[in-house]
Model the fold of this input.
Amino acid sequence: DGGITQSPKYLFRKEGQNVTLSCEQNLNHDAMYWYRQDPGQGLRLIYYSQIVNDFQKGDIAEGYSVSREKKESFPLTVTSAQKNPTAFYLCASSVAGTANTDTQYFGPGTRLTVL
Amino acid sequence: AQSVTQLDSQVPVFEEAPVELRCNYSSSVSVYLFWYVQYPNQGLQLLLKYLSGSTLVKGINGFEAEFNKSQTSFHLRKPSVHISDTAEYFCAVTRTSYGKLTFGQGTILTVHP
Done:
């Protein structure tokens, strides 16, 4: 059964701690994306990767880091430098990052709460 | 730069009534347009997309949207809604030359019995 998995579904962390969110896909897609969702603001792009071992900053990359060592995995680290990390984080993938016609497929999301 | 404005943050409607969710975009170049739906605490699912050709696009669950280039709009419609259509709907745009998806702020559709 192909799809995108994100874990955990809910995550709680203390202020000042780094935390890593997992995203795995078995769709054989080249491109992967991380979005942040806040109420009333839609989705904002954090980082994206068009191919293994390459990634680019999105619109709100400050305080976040990513890696793309494997095609199927694109973990996101929320660092202590992120001023307001509490949000719903969504991972997505598409067949190829250079084709705008591609549909992006989304995972179920991780809700991060920083206490 | 491109941007998307969803004109209504919330739309309440009774079951079996028609609904229209409004989306306007701005871009200096040609664009591709998408509508996604998000059910509570879930990821997004594609409803439909406009790439080229007929300006009336049909999607899943009985939804359709019309691309209007002169008015830079891509409104989503359904002639008769169900309780199960209660969700948040997002309009998104990307340029036909390579570019990233830009999302609107979302419209919460609530269908009442």
Observations:
- Chain B has a mean pLDDT of 92.
- The interface with chain A takes residues 4, 6, 9, 32, 34, 36, 41-46, 49, 51, 90, 94-101, 103-106 of chain B (CB under 8 Å).
- DSSP finds no helices and twelve strands in chain B.
- Residues 16 and 80 of chain B are 4 Å apart (CA to CA).
